[in-house]
Amino acid sequence: MDQEYERRLLRQINHQNLPSEARLTKCISATYSPVSVKSGDRFIPTRAGSNWSINFHYANENCRSPSQNHKAKDTTSDSSKDAVTYAALLRNELLGSGIETVQDPHTDERRHAVPSQDSHSLFKYAVHTKRVPFHSDNEVSPYSLSPLSNKSHKLLRSPRKPARKISKIPFKVLDAPELQDDFYLNLVDWSAGNLLSVGLGACVYLWSACTSQVTRLCDLSVDGDSVTSVCWNERGSLVAVGTHKGYVQIWDASGGRKLTSLEGHSARVGALAWNGEQLSSGSRDRVILQRDVRTPPSAERRLQGHRQEVCGLKWSPDHQHLASGGNDNKLLVWNSSSLLPMQQYSDHLAAVKAIAWSPHQHGLLVSGGGTADRCLRFWNTLTGQALQSTDTGSQVCNLAWSKHANELVSTHGYSQNQILVWKYPSLTQVAKLTGHSYRVLYLAVSPDGEAIVTGAGDETLRFWNVFSKTRCTKESKSVLNLFTRIR
């Protein structure tokens, strides 16, 4: 008898002699462990529970370093639009979806708007007896050799929004010696005439963005005083200078002469804000003074609502309301007629210096808190309601809205020292800019609304293209000689 045949016969006899429970257990174990059962001369692995696309993705990520993974995510964001377009093209050709435009995959509406149509089978056989008339604008030529349908051709011809790219490197870095590292001061402002005013120690310097020339406007060292704030009027002809001794000086920028010096404060003036011909000043003495520069200094309005130093002032775009922030963690909103605040917000847990009114939505106000708060908070001043808030992770020093888009930029101190660009109202971060080694305490927006300048205690001014897509070639090649040297 053949030995192989005898072995199989004995195995069959032993299997028949097993109790029913043992045979049932053996069958169950064999069912759930396919490796233990030999089926013929081939081993067929079970792949029913495997997700090969996920496993392959994990294998690639495990083989790469974290820096490579970060770069891969950047390239993926660029190629995602091509992938969406290709998927829409396949849906048109295989399923007849009729997609003509592709939306940005990074927007909230990530799905294609597929027109409603009758349900039909995937494979449809039909005889076209009537040719569609040819239109040069919308249809494909009947003599075209392209296998794509008319909808797919429209899809490929549809305009695509270019990817938003913000340079993370400043296009200008200027030295600013003696630029103070003080959270409560406002020492940088950009005028409508494209002049940048910077307070350095006891002097105020003007830098022209057109010619890169620097002029010294004033020197307060002769009076034993120092600069604590600077602010341009709306036309860019006058610059207000707040001093450590509590004076507010008005200077003619073109003539380089002092027009007047206003008294009234008993401590340093750290915040200034123009409203037409009226000038508001906030001081360490907790008082806000409103004065018309055309009238005698005695005609003034005293606004008293803060219990500590006033460190932020901003007028609304319609010139009707003044927002003030203080070291008492309060945000107050004043109108042009009353001596008492019309609204008071107390949600912040630290000093409120960063304040900005939206130029796109009437009554929308945003404020930022200091180190103990770190939050951006949005307010509807028309109803007095809090809208939304987000924790930025670091001290909020300044805020500014874009003039062209519904975006805003914030500068931060402890502990990130970064610049963030936000999209409103989703509050998604568009860009994160770093470079300053100290707190980014100062911020100003260019008159065209495309660039910003930031200043920090590292004694540098850095210019960033935040809200623009291209940069002027002439301006980028200009020779920079602000103050002493270029870094």
How many distinct helices? 6
Q: In percent terms, what proportion of residues is strand?
A: 25-35%
Total number of beta strands: 28
Low-confidence stretches: 23-38, 70-76, 108-119, 127-132, 470-487
Strand order of the largest sheet: 1-28-27-26
Structural class, from secondary structure content?
alpha+beta
N/C terminus separation: 96 Å
| Sheet having the most strands | 4 strands, antiparallel
Rg, rounded, reads: 34 Å
Instruction: Give the overall shape, derived from the CA principal axes.
Output: elongated
Mean pLDDT over the residues: 80
Helix residue percentage:
10-25%
Features:
alpha+beta, 487 residues, 28 strands, four-stranded antiparallel beta sheet, elongated, 6 helices
Model description:
With 487 residues, the chain is an alpha+beta fold. Helix content is 17%, strand content 33%. The protein contains 6 helices and 28 strands. The strands form 7 sheets. A 4-stranded antiparallel sheet has the order 1-28-27-26, with no helix packed on it. It has a 4-stranded antiparallel sheet with strand order 2-3-4-5, with no helix packed on it. One of its GO terms (molecular function) is anaphase-promoting complex binding. Belongs to the WD repeat CDC20/Fizzy family. One of its GO terms (cellular component) is anaphase-promoting complex. One of its GO terms (biological process) is anaphase-promoting complex-dependent catabolic process.
